[in-house]
Structures are given as C-alpha cells and as structure tokens.
Amino acid sequence: MSLHPKDFQRLSRFIYEELGIKMPASKTTMLEGRLAKRLRALKLDGYGAYCDYLFSDQGRENEMVHLTNAVTTNKTDFFREPNHFTYLTQTAIPELLKIGTAERGKLKIWSAGCSSGEEPYTLAMVLSEFREQHPQLGLRPQILATDISNRVLDIARRAVYHQDRITPVPPAARRKYLLKSKDRDNPIVRIAPEQRTMVSFGRLNFMDEEFGLRELQDVIFCRNVIIYFDRETQERLVRKFCRHLLPGGYLFLGHSESLHGCDVPVTQVAPTVYRKPRS
Known about the structure:
- By secondary structure, this protein is an alpha/beta fold.
- It folds into two domains: 5-71, Orthogonal Bundle (Chemotaxis Receptor Methyltransferase Cher, domain 1); 83-275, Vaccinia Virus protein VP39 (Rossmann fold).
- The protein has eleven helices and ten strands.
- Residues 1-279 form the CheR-type methyltransferase domain.
C-alpha cells in the first residue's frame, strides 16, 4: 500500500494551507510512513480512503489533531543552543529592565513552538538562577509555552522526562530543579514545582490570523520552527510575532534560521537574535 502522487498532492496542499508546512514530493515516503498508523487506527484500506475521510466534515473535525501530530517535527532538548540563554540573562534582560519594558519586574517570555517542554523549562531554570543572583530586581518571570500538537503539550504539562533526556542540564541545575523518582529502578525525573508554576501551556496554530494573546511579550523564543516554512510564510509569521512583542523586545530564532532579505520590523543584534525597535 503506497501513497499515490495525486493523494500526496491533495495532502501536501492541505498541510501547507492549514499548517504552513512545506511538503515537497521528496517527503512522500516520510508522509506515507507517518500516516500509516492513522490508516490502521481508522481501519482504512488505503491513503485515498484516508483523504476522503480527512476532507469530510467528520474528518476535518476529528482527524485534524491527529494529522497535525503526525506531520509536525518535535526535535528539542534541554539547554539547546546555550548561547541564547547567556545572551538572554547577560544582555536582553538587563536591557529590558533598564528601559522599563519589563514593568515592575514582570518579565513575559513566549516559547512559541515549545514541543514537549524542554525549552520553556530550561527558561524557567535559567530565570530562577538569574532571580537568585539578582534578588534586588524582584523579577517575576511568566513563561507562555505554545505548540500546535496536543500530543507534545500533554508531555510538556506532565513535566516528566527520562533521565536520558536531561544530559544537557548542568549538574547544579539538576540538583536544584529536577526531582528523581522514589523508585530507584524508574529512571525518570520531574521538573520541580516552582519551575512548573512559572510556565503556562496552550495550543496555538501559527497559521491562525489572530493568536489571541492577552499581553504583549518582552521576549519570544521561536527556534527551529520557521525553517519548515517558505519565505513568504516566514515573513508573515515574524510580522505577527512583532505585533505581540513589546517595543524593545527580543526575538530568538534557531541556529539554522535567518531573516536575511526578509521585510520584517526587527533588527539583528546577535547571531539569530533580533530586536524590535523602541519607536
């Protein structure tokens, strides 16, 4: 059973329109493999039948979340691209406090495309360290973490990880912010309660016209996400981010992403770090 080119075209067009994700013909085998589980779960006899179901009223209502989970990539790690966290604490936060953007110590950070939670919980650890080192600032971080996939959001909310996942976490941070299972034969850890309470999770599709965020953000992390979009979609998304970013706020992208040549209202201030003008 294989994915017919006609069905692939229908699916790739739909995925681009609904999720903004490029799906060239070279990814036919990948898409075929990822949807095979859905065919089995739905007891369908082929990808053509899957398309018929997906594009029906019932399918659009019930299957969209499963399609999203199947096609989105959720590669993430704790303390990924550590230079960003150094820049955040040594440059961005002091600058935000100096210009008064972080109002009365309230610091709002959005982890956009948070996957299974490693990035927002890394931010919680980093900001806890910063707050401990600078108690006079009265910093009150609020981390919003969003993703399109309900599956990874469920993992993130549980905040439980296999010990293999925490290798990048510095030993001192492990001792302070990770709780080991009481069962010595169960190799899992959980993020400490204080750091969990710093993060709120929600589902968000970058293709939505309005994101529905109630407050402007001081900092947005959207790393290794826009690489899956074409240039037009990247520009449109970054402009939407800027609408949710306070003047003087910062946007962090992934190490392989660039806004060079894009018509967007931010200025590069460090490798893959951008800032919205104050006026």
